[in-house]
Amino acid sequence: MSAPTVLYDEHDAIAVITLNRPDKLNALTNDMVQGVADAIATATASADVGAIVLRGASGTLTAGYDLSSIHEFSGATQPEDWDSPYDAPGPEPRPGNWDPVRDYQFMNHNVRRFMSLWECPKPVIAEIAGWAIGGATDLVMCADLLFMADDAHIGYAPSRIYGLPTTMMWIHRLGLEHAKQYLLAGRAIDAPTAHRIGLVGEIHPADQLSAASEAEARRLATIPANQLALNKLLINQAYENMGLRTTQMLGTFFDGIARHTEEALRWAEEIDHRGLRDVIADRDRPWQDYGQQP
Question: How many domains are there within the chain?
Fold first, then answer.
């Protein structure tokens, strides 16, 4: 029997949720996204949990969505591992057909599960270790506090081709100038830069990151749960009032459009022909980051 892709543990008044596909850099599948949402629900319902820590196994948070079957994102159907709650009568789609409503429902299902971190009444601390790329940022930026390893990197590389942020927390966490600086180009952001621009709250040596986040979670857990929930709700509603949900709706629609442009379809075909690693290397070489960092 294979190991669970999301691990859950409670101790010392905190819950620890661990993404557990280390052989794939914890790349996200439907099973993992659902596992995170289920774990958040479990922690929310537990009277023994005052705060939550989210991390990845083996020194990496997550490399984003698992694109090993990227061609399935370009057609009429989604990968078998990704369940869409939307189905409607209609003709059998022809090869290459794109249903924007089905695509929206398919990706919005992920957004809603990512937002379980945002909506949880208990504070969620996320550890950014190793890499947090693309869809990883859609997940991790829904947490309340971000702690980062001093050698880690975060970035939305799909800005260069094949995607847009769906939870779109970048603008709310960074403000206009920095959101454009790092989102338009998809630049990788190192830990000192992430701290300087206010993207993360704390930086720690990689081997001390988990201890630091758990210590903060234990301190938060000493505060009455209703006090934490009210403060979190008060802060979050300010961003809700600024149009967060509308921005997420547009981001999710635009993400589907970006994956179905002529350029995106040709890019996916190149991955089929040459392999994911080589095509991504071409994407990142002009910017000298991610896997092409000197």
Answer: 1
* Chain segment 149-163, per-residue pLDDT in tens: 999 999 999 999 999
153-155 and 189-190 strand pairing: antiparallel
Q: What is the pLDDT of residues 257-289, one digit of tens each?
A: 999 999 999 999 999 999 999 999 999 999 999
The answer to whether the CB of 113 falls within 8 A of the CB of 33 is: yes
Which structure tokens are listed for 109?
A: 């299902």
Is 236 in a helix, a strand, or coil? helix
Whether pLDDT at 86 is above 80:
no
CA-nearest of 14, 231, 211, 208 to 124 is 14
> Is residue 144 one of the residues assigned to a domain?
yes
Provide the Cα torsion 139, 145, 148, 154; round to 10°: 30
Structural domain of residue 118, as residue ranges? 6-292
CA distances from residue 227 to 16, 53, 217, 234, 235 in whole angstroms, order as listed: 21, 19, 15, 11, 12
Please indicate, yes or no, if residue 1 is contained in any of the structural domains. Answer: no
Residue found under tokens 């196994």: 57
Please give the Cα distance from 208 to 44 (Å, whole number).
26
Distance, first Cα to last Cα, the chain: 40
Relative to beta strand 14-19, strand 51-56 is parallel
> On the CB side of 290, how many CA atoms lie within 13 Å of its CA?
25
Residue 243 within a domain: yes
In CATH, what number is assigned to the domain containing residue 183? 3.90.226.10
> Is residue 34 a part of any domain in this protein?
yes
* Of residues 190, 184, 150, the one with CA closest to residue 170: 184
